[in-house]
Amino acid sequence: MSESTMKDWYTPIEVHTLKRWLIATIIVNLVLLIIDLLRTDDMNFIYGLTGCILLIALNRLFPEAEQRWRKDASLVLSGAIMALGVLRLASIEITLFNLWMQAWLIVPGAISLWWLSSRPVSAWATQKLSTHAIEYGLKRNHGLNQKYR
User: Model confidence over 86-121: pLDDT tens digits?
Assistant: First the structure.
């Protein structure tokens, strides 16, 4: 396998996983907006709609190889999503259902922040990787994929 082919193939598994998981998160949050409409809670509906917009923006601005600005923008969006979920939770009565509802913003924001700031993603998004680093990353992805499959 040539070096350019390996570079094209390698993306940290965290990025692949988040891309797929965020689509489900966006869909669930759009469905949860219906509950805010039924509750006639305009402020929480606006918070929820903003959360959906931020999740979509995060999905569109995911890091790419050697594009630090996209990684930095993704980290800011992840923090904003998590903060918005906490703000939304603080503005309503705390019940088990409301905790579950807000977890659909808080947890994806926190996991995105954690995974996108991890060493493999940071190295991949901010610098030109050596062939050895790419080989290690591909091996790591394969090992994690087998472990959690």
Answer: 999 999 999 999 999 999 999 999 999 998 998 887
Amino acid at 71: K
DSSP 9: H
Distances (CA, A) of 140 to 51, 88, 111: 32, 37, 19
33 touches 48 (CB < 8 A) = yes
Phi first, then psi, for residue 11 (nearest 5°) are -140, 130
The residue behind tokens 């394969």 is 142
Instruction: Give the torsion sign (CA, 138, 118, 52, 22).
Output: positive
- How many residues would you count in the chain? 149
pTM value is 0.83
Cα–Cα dist 145/68, whole Å: 25
Give me 146's structure tokens: 């087998």
Task: Select from 15, 58, 55, 57 the least CA-distant residue to 32.
Answer: 55
